[in-house]
Amino acid sequence: QRQLVESGGGLVQPGGSLRLSCALSGFAADDDAIGWFRQTPGKEREGVSCISTMRDRTLYADSVKGRFTISRDKSKNTVDLQMNALNAEDSAHYYCAIAVGSGYVCYLTENAYDYWGQGIQVTVSS
Asked: Given phi > 0 = left and psi -120 to 50 = alpha, else beta, which region is 94?
């Protein structure tokens, strides 16, 4: 069964860090792109970061550049998002998604992705 499961969310103080993990089941993920997106109530889903597995190319939204890092663990078949220097604007429901067969380039547009996880909440608050 193909599924993506996010973990690592929660409550963190401003300036703090969290590490999200996306576990990929039923995917070889060797010729795919994996992306992280986020959404807050009343707003459209926003692309945060993505990685293409053939060349490990990464892409970041301007709002997170220099603070977030996406990485892939082939042995665990997971894709992590390390989030540092978090602020209130980073509070959102975070989703991971996979674009099957898009291993050379990734995009931060949700219609490029085929399968989605259920998402996990990240709240940045003091």
From this structure: beta
Is the separation of the CB atoms in 14 and 38 below 8 Å? no
Q: pLDDT at position 24, please?
A: 96
Show the tokens assigned to 62. 């301007």
Give pLDDT tens digits for 116-125: 999 999 999 9
Q: Once rounded to an integer, what is the mean pLDDT over residues 95-116?
A: 94
Q: Are 27 and 77 in contact (CB under 8 A)?
A: yes
Tell me the DSSP string of 3-31. EEEEE--EEE-TT--EEEEEEEES---SS
Mean pLDDT within 97-103: 92
Inter-residue contact 9 to 2 (CB < 8 Å)? no
Which residue reads 């429901």 in tokens? 93
